[in-house]
Amino acid sequence: MTTSLNGTAAQEDTNIIPFLPSGTFYFTHGIQAFQKRRFSAAVKWLKKAIEASPDEPLYQCQLSVVYTEVGSYHAANQVLTEVLANFGKEYVDCYYLMANNYAHLGLLNDAKKYVETYLEQPGDGEFEEAAKQLMEMLDSLEEDDDEDEWAFDDEDELLIYQETAFYHLEQEEWDEALDVLREMMELFPDFKMAKHKYASALFMNGDKEEAIQLEMDQLEEEPWNIHSHVNLATFLLEKRMSDQALVHIERLRNVFPMHDQQKLAVAETLARGGFYKEAVDRFRSLRNKQVTCRRVYYKWYSIAVYHTGNPSKALQLWEKGCRQYPKMGQEGGPWKEE
């Protein structure tokens, strides 16, 4: 009886066909993990796909996309550089993906170089429209840099107006802020920041539709204006129009300004939109005391930190903000849902 059973098992063993997973098998699992936002698993599956099919550049490009999604921009570009080196320049989409990663890193010259290379390639690439938008954004950032250099020039009168408007805005004294900002716009018509602050104060003072229209008109003239996207995202979130707000937030997720005023505005907007991890990264990059003592810095950095699992630091930031801005104490705390 025992011999018969062993013989049967041995016979069955000879009929077993071993399963040898292919690169496609691993790649499919990697894509499924990526779609479920299980990024660590996606990286593991895609690396296995690359090991099984090292001559398939698609798998490496997808791995770079996962790295980009989790913020590992240098790692993503390393993978894409290897694809270009090993498989030739026919994989032109790599140029756009690299440009996008450099933009995230704030390396705007590199970003512009690679997006220009991508757009110079013959034919219509998969990312042609996105690449054109990225180029517009990079050109706009250069213009914003020039404007900001002038905005903080040592012109005493302008600085006095800026500080006065800032004080009223921080204290949520909207009527007073609007009066000062109206004067600023009349005296300094080329100082565009006053227009955005005016729209913000107008919205908070109750003239919501007028404020939204002002920024929509501005956006028609300058589609990549950071401050317009910041204001419109904020306005629409306040009106519980999350889907419409997300359009502007997505634009800002790809923007890495050079100046701390703009960095703070983007960080605050990402926190408002619930992109807490990205917001924390942006807040951490701020060093200038001119922005790290702001009310919005304490409030929204605290909220973002709380929602990324660090309640003790969140409370520390909140309490520090409340000491400087007592009205914050009436807002509940970083755990309170906006």
From TrEMBL:
Q: Which Pfam family, just one, is annotated for this protein?
A: TPR_16
- What are the entry keywords? Repeat, TPR repeat
TPR repeats by residue range: 23-56
InterPro entries the record matches? CellSynth/LPSAsmb/PSIAsmb, TPR-like_helical_dom_sf, TPR_rpt
Q: What is this protein called?
A: Tetratricopeptide repeat protein
* Organism the protein comes from: Halobacillus litoralis
